[in-house]
Design goal:
The protein has 12 helices and no strands. With 368 residues, the chain is mainly alpha-helical. The protein has one domain. The longest helix has 46 residues. The protein starts with 17 loop residues before the first helix and ends with a helix.
């Protein structure tokens, strides 16, 4: 049986909600700063950006909104494998790049020698599972991360799961069904927060299902915001929306109340930010910085953590004083942002463009 040809128009990318794109870049930078801070300060109440990790939940909510916006009107006309190819083209190049960086820092970290401990076969398995997004939490020295070469890949694992469920089930869901899913997953999220005192989990073996709770609510909530048309027109602009996002991420951490405060931020505040961000107007003078922020957001998120392992070992081995860290951390952040820009311009964008063009060529041939 001959495969049904795909209309090339279905492969076109819709225009972005510009300020949401820029906010995503800010969230990625906050996560980088948070990862530096949590390495040098173990008491979260002393970290000025202790809720920076909640940027992941903002990513998930934004993802549900964007997927619903981009595919609701065309997913029914698109083969499942075409949707999967499009998502792989968008996400997988940086999964591979992050895995390669993780492998290099695993092999050549000047402050540790995990390769000598785990050997060639286990290291090859770590790399293979990282590239193919298979959780493999075996490295005790890295706290049994689901992905030991590039820790943030745990969110991509759940992103892929959510995308697949969307393409097979959720795209058909009515708003009533979405509301039920949102309410059930919000209850799950509040339970996790109350039971464990925070929403920080999802990244290792013992908190695996915390990741399910976080993606379940935020992704479906993002879809519901889009399908309900909850877009609030406003004049906050990029600066105002960035400030509102930062309010959540710099909220003080308190061991007694964070288990309640964090679900409240995720369940109520982030959807409001999403609605406001989608309705905000970008000033012309902010267009360049907004575009740059959006462009580097995913590359920065997926390339920074291999260097975090090196930084953590540097701190453990050399025990630098605060004066030294005051210049090491800011310079490292600037270098990581610069590196993410290079990866964006010379690897991610060209690879994605090439793969998308190949997919379009094959589609046109089949149509003809």
């Amino acid at each position: 049986m001959q495969e049904k040809p795909i209309n090339p128009q279905l492969l076109k990318t819709k225009p972005h909600f510009e300020i949401l794109n820029g906010m995503r870049g800010l969230a990625a930078i906050v996560i980088v700063i948070f990862h530096f801070m949590e390495i040098i300060i173990t008491d979260f109440s002393q970290i000025f950006i202790a809720h920076g990790f909640l940027a992941v939940d903002f990513f998930f909510c934004l993802s549900g909104f964007v997927i619903s916006y981009a595919y609701d009107t065309r997913i029914a006309k698109m083969l499942l494998k075409t949707f999967i190819k499009l998502r792989l083209i968008r996400l997988q190049p940086l999964v591979v790049i992050g895995s390669i960086l993780g492998l290099l820092t695993f092999l050549f970290d000047p402050y540790s020698n995990l390769f000598a401990l785990y050997g060639f076969k286990e290291t090859a398995l770590l790399f293979t599972t990282s590239v193919f997004m298979i959780p493999y939490p075996v490295v005790s020295e890295r706290f049994f991360n689901l992905f030991n070469l590039n820790a943030p890949s745990w969110t991509l694992f759940w992103e892929y799961v959510a995308n697949l469920i969307y393409a097979t089930i959720l795209f058909k869901a009515t708003k009533r069904v979405l509301v039920i899913l949102v309410l059930l997953s919000a209850t799950f999220l509040f339970y996790i927060g109350w039971q464990y005192g925070n929403l920080l989990g999802g990244w290792n073996d013992s908190t695996f299902f915390h990741g399910l709770a976080r993606i379940s609510f935020s992704f479906t909530m993002g879809m519901l915001v889009h399908r309900s048309g909850w877009i609030i027109k406003n004049k906050f602009g990029l600066i105002g929306m960035s400030a509102l996002l930062m309010l959540a991420l710099v909220t003080p951490y308190n061991d007694q109340w964070s288990g309640i405060v964090e679900p409240i931020i995720v369940v109520f505040y982030f959807p409001l930010l999403l609605s406001l961000g989608a309705g905000a107007t970008l000033a012309k003078k902010h267009e360049k910085i907004n575009k740059l922020s959006g462009d580097i957001s995913y590359p920065l998120y997926m390339t920074h953590y291999p260097f975090m392992w090196v930084f953590a070992n540097y701190v453990s081995v050399t025990q630098p004083n605060i004066a030294e860290l005051w210049w090491v951390i800011p310079i490292s952040i600037i270098l990581l942002i610069g590196f993410a820009y290079i990866v964006t311009e010379f690897l991610d964008f060209p690879i994605r463009r090439y793969l998308k063009d190949r997919l379009k060529e094959k589609t046109i041939k089949k149509t003809n």
